[in-house]
Model the fold of this input.
Amino acid sequence: MVSPEKEKVPLGKGLKARGNVEEWLGKVEESMVATLRKLTKHAIGDYEEKIREEWVTCHASQ
Done:
């Protein structure tokens, strides 16, 4: 995923455009949610360990 600010967040592996478009897009959405959930948990874990300015800039903000 790439934000308008050019911030990049990689999606999970193994996504292929096959089958019904509705099912494939559903899998893309699931992958987006899972990726952002994982990155958010990681960011929360880092919050206590880093200076706030560093924490904000080193984690995705999409």
Summary: The mean pLDDT is 87. The radius of gyration is 14 Å.
